[in-house]
Specification:
The complex is a heterotrimer of chains A (380), B (183) and C (271). Chain A folds into two domains: 178 residues, Rossmann fold, CATH 3.40.50; 109 residues, Rossmann fold (3-Layer(aba) Sandwich). With 380 residues, chain A is an alpha/beta fold. By secondary structure, chain B is of the alpha/beta class. Chain B has a domain of 128 residues: 3-Layer(aba) Sandwich (Pyruvate-ferredoxin Oxidoreductase, domain 3). In chain B, helix 2 links the parallel strand 4 and strand 5. In chain C, helix 2 links the parallel strand 1 and strand 2. Chain C has an eight-stranded mixed sheet with strand order 2-1-3-4-6-5-8-7, with helices on both faces. In chain C, helix 1 packs across helix 7, helix 4 packs across helix 5 and helix 5 packs across helix 6. The chains are: A alpha/beta (380), B alpha/beta (183), C alpha/beta (271). Strand 9 of chain A pairs parallel with strand 2 of chain C, so a sheet runs across the interface.
């Protein structure tokens, strides 16, 4: 049987990806350009017995999502710009309390109200460091409507597996444009559910890590496993502690569970296009990578050995592969719809191994291939 | 055909041009199995005044998702023509509504005019199908998708009760182009 | 035989953090008795709080407990209740937590009439941070950030809850210990958003600054200002000056939020 296909907006693809992943709760608040995610969820969730709630504000939306997740539901929120800023405290809550959830950030210009209907990629550092305190981050950055679907599914899987908030960042261009989506059949994409405790309820400790990179199983409110959750630093039993060794162990474990080599290899996802023999590699993500691929094709036709490195997982940063490419190429050109953010991560990794330049834009128009080609020719 | 073909539909908000763009993208990517990206103006830009919808069609995946230089442009109003009938490829085409665009911007492209709104009102009896007439005319002029694909995409979008109405409107778009070419 | 509170308390979690003379412990005991009266199953009950002294209460209780972020208890609780409408959800916290930083969540939970019981301990001060004024600090009184007396007017929490749409609203004080459990129990049994405001005292941060010589003085004041609603009906405006009405202030039956959503799902799935 032929697969179901449809021409869909990126935001609709996101919502349908969430449903495919088993999402049963959405708590949101209207904000451009992410609102269509909420609209589609409000329509689709009741069909599958899920719950949609439009909360009184962005913070309440994030809070409801964490509560819903603790009650056992895969939970989603979607927001943009100022809404992402408002959610930061509770994203940190989900980090320290280790509550799986997915946050969609349809990126627009900023800061503040900025350009609500214009695209931007200026939230990539916020996705890493937006909430206060030391913490790990997982963020993915799809470039097409189809990839928004599959990356939303993967975001849920990562959230459940690593027991933490996962952010899906895509810009207004991909969020609002329409492309063909080929819907995967049920079972075609892997769906991961959080690990449930196997010990007896009396023995259960919600943060009982077996190693310094372990992700302990999370029980569900309303089951026989009663437990306590707090945003305070806590011991293995979930209760507050200020004991230095326990605080340090937990803080370090919650980062190491994402940044240890095994986890990085599992979470990392990149696309490489014509990088094998490349002398110049364009580092680009999200819709900017589409412009970059167009530019690479044009330059190849002109005999320039250009390639594209596109991180789909932007956090954790693909350190190992970027370092290798830095040693291989003559130059790297970082293309992003901001005034230079990821370029500093690239610089941190490649150091002086190759030349580095950036193509930045924040005027509401996408970066066009011509700008990229001009910069490449300048640095080569 | 070039690696990508770009079409822009523009007119007044509420004339259904975003829908026309979506239908064309569906004809190309769903019915013909090629690649298409549709995008549109948003926010304050999309309310009142002029609005636009752009479709890029190609045999391979579309990388850069926005229009670069359009092959064909439709303008249903003078305001839309002034604002959006720009960046048309040399040798490309501009289709305007005879009655509502008195001064189409001139350039190195062919300008066609059809009384689209008038045709909708007088020959179909419903102004609401003007976008479907326009879509038919644009497909007739550009050949960017097969006539049958466009019709199939239109009919997939409309309720049962409006099938005949829309079929008539779509075919009128083709007839008007035929008359234009003959005339 | 003395009432057995231990069965509801997590082993090893006492002593609590509250200062001598604080009313929160009285409220917690009232809550325990009320939950017992209602026969709540531990596994099927969640207690959710925000940040502050009063919000430490859930940590002592042997139920599903969630100590959230400042002001957010009602919003977290809404998520739990939406996913598991069969669970009993109880929120607790202080006046600053519930009506200042969390005011928006509080009034909207009332508006939705979602089936939760919110026990709000009003001690008219931010106690944990050292006694700053809250939206409930009486005008003219002293707090660490109102050294010249509080210029702000106050929120009447119960009126706020009624105005926002809560369908069971009651008030008592920590002096009226036995009334606490009766009102909370009635709130738990009520289908919809129930708000029980308990006036209690913070001797450390409020009493000390405002010339209350002892906890007993503060308790005496609670006793004196409280007027049951039935008695108030027979009193003149002059007699009621400076008094606080106690008992069930408001009760009505109105469609409950998660019930309504369940009907919506049934309608969508039936269509």
């Amino acid at each position: 049987m032929a697969k179901k296909v449809a021409l869909l907006q990126g935001n609709s693809a996101c919502a349908l990806g969430a449903i495919y992943a088993g999402c049963k709760f959405f708590g949101g608040y209207p904000i451009t350009p992410s609102t269509e995610v909420a609209e589609v969820m409000s329509e689709e969730l009741p069909k599958v017995g899920g719950k949609f709630i439009q909360m009184e504000d962005e913070i309440g939306a994030m809070a409801s999502v964490i509560g819903a997740s603790l009650a056992g539901s895969k939970s989603l929120t979607a927001t943009s710009g100022p809404g992402v800023s408002l959610k930061q405290e509770l994203i940190g809550y989900a980090c320290i309390a280790e509550v799986p959830c997915v946050i969609i950030n349809v990126m627009r210009g900023g800061p503040s109200t900025g350009m609500p209907t214009g695209p931007g990629q200026s939230d990539v550092m916020q996705a890493r460091w937006g909430t206060h305190g030391d913490h790990a981050a997982i963020a993915v950055c799809p470039e097409s409507c189809q990839e928004i679907f599959t990356e939303t599914v993967r975001a849920f899987n990562l959230a459940e597996k690593y027991r933490m908030p996962v952010q899906v960042l895509y810009d207004e261009i991909v969020g609002h444009m329409r492309e063909r989506i080929v819907f995967p059949e049920p079972g075609e994409l892997e769906i991961i559910d959080r690990a449930a405790p196997t010990c007896s309820p009396e023995e259960y400790k919600p943060y009982d890590a077996k190693s310094d990179t372990d992700v302990p199983p999370l029980a569900v409110f309303g089951s026989e496993y009663r437990f306590h959750v707090t945003g305070l630093n806590k011991a293995a039993d979930g209760f507050p502690t200020t004991k230095a060794n326990l605080v340090a162990f937990e803080e370090r474990r919650q980062i190491a569970k994402v940044e240890c080599p095994e986890a990085r290899a599992d979470i990392e996802s990149n696309e490489e296009y014509l990088t094998e023999d490349a002398e110049v590699v364009i580092f680009a993500y999200g819709s900017s990578a589409r412009s970059a691929r167009y530019a690479v094709n044009k330059m190849r036709a002109e005999g320039i050995k250009a390639g594209l490195f596109r991180p789909i997982t932007i956090w954790p940063f693909p350190e190992k592969r970027v370092a290798e490419l830095g040693k291989q190429v003559n130059s790297m050109v970082v293309v992003e719809m901001n005034l230079g953010q990821m370029i500093f991560e690239v610089e941190r990794i490649v150091k002086n191994d190759c030349k580095l330049a950036g193509v930045f834009r924040v005027d509401g128009d996408p970066i066009n291939p011509g700008e990229i080609m001009a910069k490449v020719k300048e640095v080569l | 055909m070039a690696e990508r073909y770009e079409i822009r539909f523009s007119g007044a908000g509420g004339q259904g041009l975003i829908t026309a763009g979506i239908i064309l993208a569906e004809a190309a990517s769903i019915i013909e199995g090629r690649h298409a990206v549709q995008s549109q103006s948003y926010g304050p830009e999309a309310r009142g005044g002029a609005s636009k919808s752009e479709v890029i069609i190609g045999e391979d995946p579309i990388d850069y998702p926005k229009a670069t230089i359009v092959d064909a442009c439709l303008a249903m109003t003078q305001e839309a023509a002034d604002k959006y009938a720009v960046g048309i490829k040399p040798g490309g085409l501009l289709l305007v509504d005879t009655d509502f665009v008195k001064n189409p911007p001139k350039g190195d492209y062919t300008i066609y005019d059809i009384p689209i709104m008038r045709t909708a009102k007088l020959e179909v009896g419903r102004e609401i199908v003007a976008n479907v007439i326009a879509l038919g005319a644009m497909i007739a002029l550009t050949d960017v998708v097969k006539r049958e694909s466009g019709l199939q995409a239109v009919l997939a979008k409309v309720p049962e009760a409006f099938i005949e109405l829309n079929k008539k409107a779509y075919n009128l778009g083709f007839e008007k182009v035929k008359e234009l070419m003959a005339g | 035989m003395a009432y057995d509170y231990e069965k509801s308390i997590r082993p090893g979690k006492l002593p609590h953090i509250w200062c001598p003379g604080c009313g929160h412990g009285i409220v917690m005991k009232g809550l325990i008795r009320a939950m017992d009266t209602c026969g709540l199953e531990k596994n099927n009950t969640a207690i959710v709080s925000g940040i502050g002294c009063a919000s430490r209460l859930p940590g002592y209780m042997d139920f599903n407990t969630l100590h959230t972020a400042h002001g957010r208890a009602a919003a977290f609780a809404t998520g739990i209740k939406m996913v598991k409408p069969e669970m009993t959800v109880i929120c607790c916290g202080g006046d600053g937590d519930g009506t200042a930083i969390g005011g928006n969540h509080f009034i909207h939970a009332c508006r939705r009439n979602i089936d939760m019981t919110y026990v709000i301990m009003n001690n008219y001060i931010y106690g944990m941070t050292g006694g700053q004024f809250s939206p409930c600090t009486p005008t003219g009184m002293k707090a660490s950030t109102t050294p010249y007396g509080n210029p702000d007017p106050i929120f009447d929490i119960s009126k706020l809850a009624i105005g926002a749409g809560a369908t069971f609203v009651a008030r008592t004080t920590s002096f009226h210990a036995t009334q606490i459990d009766k009102l909370i129990a009635e709130g738990i049994k009520h289908k919809g958003m129930s708000v029980i405001e308990v006036l209690d005292d913070c001797p450390t941060s409020y009493g000390r600054r405002n010339k209350f010589r002892s906890v007993v003085d503060m308790m005496k004041r609670l006793k004196e200002v409280a007027v049951p609603v039935a008695a108030a009906a027979k009193m003149t405006d002059e007699q009621l000056e400076g008094k606080v009405l106690t008992g069930v202030l408001f009760k009505e039956e109105r469609a409950e939020y998660t019930d309504q959503y369940a009907k919506l799902i049934a309608r969508v799935q039936g269509a």
